[in-house]
Structures are given as C-alpha cells and as structure tokens.
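Hi V.,

You were right to ask for the full record rather than a summary. Here it is.
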Amino acid sequence: MQLAASEEYRIKPQSNIIIRPILAHDKEKLFHLVRQRGTFNEKEIEIAIEVIEDTLAFPEKKEYYTFCALEGNGDIAGFICFGPIPMTDRCYDLYWIAVDEKFSRNGIGKKLLEAMENFVVKEKARRIYIDTSSTAPYAAARTFYENHGFRLITVLQDFYRLDDDKIIFMKEIPGNEM
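Predicted structure:
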C-alpha cells in the first residue's frame, strides 16, 4: 500500500492526537526522541536513526513504515516503525515504538499500535512479531505488549549478550489466516 505523505490515521475522532506517516521535516525530532528515551543503548540508537533515514530515503522499497503521533500543537509525541518480514507469508515486525516521556501514559503508544494494526489488516497480514530485550529498561515495554494482546512465544537465552535474552512476542491478526 502506498501512503500519501498527507494521509492521516485518526484512531478516535474525539482525540487530539493525529497519527500519520513521518515526513522529512520530522527527522531531527524523531532522532531526539530516540536519544532522550533513556531505554536504548548507543547501538540501538544508531540502528533506529538508520531505519528512520531509510524510511524517508527509500519509501518505494516498502521495507519500513514509520508513523508518528502528533499532539494537538504539532509536537511529535511518539513514533512506531514496522514492516513486512522478508520471506514470510504476510508477517510483520514491529521494529520500534517510542513515546516522548512528557506524553507517556496517555494512550499514545496504544494509538500507535492501533494505527499499525489498521495498516497491516489492510495489507492482509497474518501476524505481527516483536523482538525485545529481557533487561530491566524494557520491562515496561514487555508489559505494554502483553497488555495489548501480544503473547510471549519464545525466549532466546543470552542472545544480545550475557544475561540479555531476546524475547519474542506475537499477535495473530484475526480473519487474515487465508
């Protein structure tokens, strides 16, 4: 599905949060958000920046879709990046989701997840996967995923480094089993 830069994904009409694909002028604000979160290590920040740049530079590849949440005054409150998993039958990865700390706990992460899910349903996706770390800074993220219907499917011990397991969550997309 090709997205128009002006296309918006409104989750609830009464909400003052607008979800839309990122634009070139969002780049520096997104980089700042990734850096200020305090969750990501230097390598993760580097990869997140690379993925944001690739989203903007090569939209025709359709490897990554990155949406941002705009607060009423236009501030970027968060973003989500996801894409199809190569060599799979309609499976997607959620690569990144981050909400600016000043907007945390206001349902923005939920709205970003809903926008992603609406998109992948239109693409007839079967599943969404999330890979995350077992370390303490990711505890809230793991709880968030479980609270939004993702289930733990496996743990790869010491995957990232010693005492840092890779935890994989998955969510089935109802009606798209074909």
